Amino acid sequence: MKWINTVFNKKVDAIGLSIFRILYSIVLFFEIKQLYTFRHLIYDKDPYRIIGELDVAFIFKFWFVIVLFLCVGIFKRLTTIINYIFSVVIFSSAITFEYHVFYAYVGINFLLMFMPINRVLSIDALIEKLKYSVMSRQYKIDRKILKINYLIVVFAALGLVYFDSIFHKLSSVMWTKGLGVWLPSSLPMVTWTDSTWLLNQKWLMLFLGYLVLVFETVFIALFWFKRYRIVLLSIGLFLHIGILITYPIPWFALTAIVVYVLMVPISFWLKISNSLKLKSPLYKFYYDLECPLCNKIIIIIKHFDVFNAIQCVDVQNNFTKEEAFKNIPEEDVLINIHGVDKNGKVYIGYYAYVKLLKAMIYTYPLGLILSLPLINVLGRKLYQLIAGNRITERCTVDNCNVPVFTNPISENEELYISGVTTLKITKLFWKVVIVIMFFGQVLMIWFSPLFQQHYNVSIIDKVLSYPYKKLNDEYKDYLGLTHHPVFMYKNHFEDYKYVFKVVSINSKNEETIIPLLNNDAMVVKSVARGAFWVNSTFRVNGPHFNLNKYEKGLLPYLRYYETLEEDIKGYKIYYKTINPVNQWSKDFLINNINSPWKSCGFIKPLKNEYQFNWDKAFEEKLD
Questions:
Q1: What does the DSSP assignment read for 509-535?
Q2: Which of 64, 76, 84 is nearest to 122 (CA)?
Q3: What's the CA gap between 553 and 373, in Å, rounded?
Q4: 3-class DSSP state for residue 232?
Q5: Contact (Cβ atoms closer than 8 angstroms) between residue 290 and residue 316
Q6: Which of 119, 184, 225, 304 is the most buried (most CB within 10 A)?
Q7: SS3 sequence, 142-167?
Q8: Phi and psi of 348, rounded to 5°?
Q9: Residue among 473, 585, 486, 593 nearest 187 (CA)
């Protein structure tokens, strides 16, 4: 089939994959930063009192460095392996604070280990250029990669997720009635945006609900084809930007948006890259053409010169053409680095590099810092120390010992077996990965409510139940494949009757709402984002409300709040009634927001515990 040939054989520029690497690393960094910030709330044996056997702070601090390395593209192989191990340890082990994007991180981090994410816009690419370049020839990195490297992440992080999710949605009356977008957005404890005007447009809400169903159904089959990608990209970005605006799961929404970056036409990134380049350089940097060290420096400058602001000029062929060098001996320019700006001003030695940084535009702040008086003095001394020998004697191939390496084996060259190349192994590997992942997701789909309730076939159950039981946990923990019953009426909203507001009281009897739900019962200015929102909304509170479960789940949040406020005499608890429905209703969100708060209890902090005193009327209401 033509599309298979295109996906597995066509080679394209790697710039889009590198942009994905950078953006994904940033999102991942902020996700783990949130977990690190609230690590005592999650991992402590006794929250904010007793740390468990393992202090996870060390893991997170090390992980921050790894994600930074991933972002800049250095030591790719080691970095991606460690990043994957950490994601399995932290994300796959999550229970109380688990939420669905964790599995996406695990799957993506697994795939990153095998993807050429460092071909461009990376430190690894620079290291490779420096290693294999010689005086007579500058080594060029092969920027072309297989198209499957772009689509494999889309397949795993979006396609399989949507494909599984649709079988859950089709078993839910809320979704089949077209209310899958409207109802969650109309419940104050689920949203952080009052979008009443949109929610009141019944036709629009029903359209969006059915659009999600159709989109998720066809996505896995159509995204492989180039002619459908722009449409799918546009709808996908629209939906996930909507999630970002509406629900307190920003890193989930941004992760999906970043994955959609892989569907952006590569020509778009190349046009952006070319449009950033200046028509004429801002600074000329002169170097000794016969100096191996100088040639390496030129490679570094060109690698980081994103805006094409620097013109690297060799002295031997251009000295007499430069008007600014009229009164400077050629030997001086050969021995010490010189630069000339657009106005003809000459910069020498340390100042030539400072001006270069300023001229490269995005490194201007660094150049400015190096110009500061004290740093300036230290910088000049360091430059003299490094360049001292060269200033005394020119560096040439005769006296500069720069090692030369043989070029790496091409992916098209045969390995130890005739006819076997790295490229062929790569193509086969991705095909096997797709089959394994698709099989795992199909296993889970068969045991989803839709099939089990309506299409149960005992023979198929017997055949699939064994691999499902044996492989389900492994698929989830190591590949991030699992069930995706996101926003299901029966699981998340049916019998969801109460939301709570907890207010602290200080010694002056001043009241402050602790940052979970605000006075409108919405997730605004709250710590309940991402994993913490899922925990507080559906595990601490939730359908089939349980007092003991709520007390135990609320405790870590109270302990966290007490790290911010010391003067706390106690807490008042208020509740309001929520009534999720399976029928569209005008002003449903506003009506929920405007329903009155009623007092239902008081929490008294003791030395090592909290004493919950619930109103008898509220306890009777629960019974």
A1: --EEE-SSS-TTSS-SS-S--THHHHH
A2: 76
A3: 55
A4: helix
A5: yes
A6: 119
A7: CCEEECHHHHHHHHHHHHHHHHHHHH
A8: -125, 140
A9: 593
Distances from the Cα of 92 to the Cα of 95, 97, 474, angstroms:
8, 11, 10
Confidence of residue 73 (pLDDT cuts 50, 70, 90): very high
Residue whose token pair is 């106690």:
570
pLDDT digits 0-9 by tens, 28-43: 999 999 999 999 999 9
User: What is each CA distance from 167 to 147, 261, 448, 583, in whole angstroms?
Assistant: 29, 26, 7, 21
User: Under a CB-based contact definition with an 8 Å cutoff, are residues 555 and 40 in contact?
Assistant: no
Quick one: the chain helix, strand, coil %, rounded to 5? Answer: 55, 10, 35
Q: For residues 267 and 15, is the Cβ–Cβ distance under 8 A? A: no
C-alpha span between 162 and 181 (Å, rounded): 15
How far is it, in rounded angstroms, from Cα 335 to Cα 396? Answer: 11
Q: 529: how many CB neighbours lie within 10 A of its CB?
A: 19
287 sits in which H/E element: strand 283-287
Look up residue 407 and give its DSSP letter: P
Report CA Rg, the chain: 30
Chain segment 523-559, per-residue pLDDT in tens? 988 888 899 999 999 999 988 888 999 999 999 999 9
Distance, CA of 98 to CA of 93 (rounded, Å): 8
CA distance to 267, 384, 391, 604, per residue, from 378 (Å): 45, 10, 18, 59
Q: Are 315 and 336 in contact (CB under 8 A)?
A: no
- CA pair distance 480, 102, nearest whole angstrom: 8
- H or E, element range at 11: strand 11-13
Question: Which residue has tokens 């560096």?
Answer: 395
SS (H, E, C) 290-325: CCHHHHHHHHHHHHHCCCCCEEEEEHHHHHHHCHHH
Structure tokens at 158: 């979006």
pLDDT tens track for 173-209: 899 999 999 999 999 999 989 999 999 999 999 999 9
- Closest Cα partner for 239 from 198, 208, 204, 210? 208
Q: 499 and 575 in contact (C-beta within 8 Å)?
A: yes
DSSP for 102-127, please give it. HHHHHHHHHHHTTS-TTSSSSHHHHH
Dist. CA 407–CA 443, nearest whole Å = 45
Q: How far apart are CA 623 and CA 608, in angstroms?
A: 29
Nearest-angstrom CA–CA distance, 5 and 1: 7
CA distances to 285, 346, 355, 376, 395 from 351, rounded to whole Å, are 12, 9, 6, 9, 20
Q: How far is Cα 516 from Cα 531, in angstroms, rounded to an integer?
A: 13
Sheet (strand 498-505) strand order: 511-513, 498-505, 570-577, 598-605, 610-614
